[in-house]
Amino acid sequence: MAENYNGMAVGIFELDSFAACFVALDAASKAANVRIQNIERNRLGAGACVKMRGSVSDVTAAMEAAIRTAEPIAKVVSHTVIASPAHDTEPAMYMTANK
C-alpha cells in the first residue's frame, strides 16, 4: 500500500540500539502528529534508522522528543529534519548510507 508523503517533511534518526528506536518512536509519536514511514536495521547489527513524516513543526517536535528520550539509553548516531524532500511532480526520495 503506497502512502502519499508529497510535501511532508521527513525526520531521520539512527541509534545504535534497535530497542531504543522503539522507545524513541513512542516518545516522538506522543509529542507530535507524525507518521512513521520506516524502521530499518542498520548493517552494523544492533542499531536502526527511523524515518517519520509530517509537517515541519511536527517532525521537529517529534525529533526533539525522540533524541531527548534516546540519549540516556543509546548512542545517537545521526539525526536530521528535511523540510520538503520532494515536490508533487518529482519521484519520492530514498536515502542510503555508504558504509
List the helices and strands and how they pair.
Blueprint: E1 9-15, H1 18-31, E2 35-41, E3 48-54, H2 56-70, E4 76-82
Antiparallel strand pairs: 1-3, 1-4, 2-3
Which CATH class?
Answer: Alpha Beta
| Portion in beta strands | 25-35%
Q: Assign the CATH topology.
A: Alpha-Beta Plaits
The poorly predicted ranges are 88-99
Q: Structural class of the helix and strand makeup?
A: alpha+beta
- Give a quick account of the main beta sheet: strands, pairing sense, barrel closure: 4 strands, antiparallel
- State the domain count: 1
Averaging pLDDT over every residue, what do you get? 83
The CATH architecture classification is 2-Layer Sandwich
Organism: Blautia intestinalis
Protein name: BMC domain-containing protein
Domain BMC: 9-94
Subcellular location: Bacterial microcompartment
Characterization of this structure:
With 99 residues, this protein is of the alpha+beta class. It has a single domain, classed as Alpha-Beta Plaits (2-Layer Sandwich), CATH 3.30.70.1710. Helix content is 29%, strand content 28%. The protein contains 2 helices and 4 strands; from the N terminus they run E-H-E-E-H-E. The radius of gyration is 13 Å and the shape is globular.
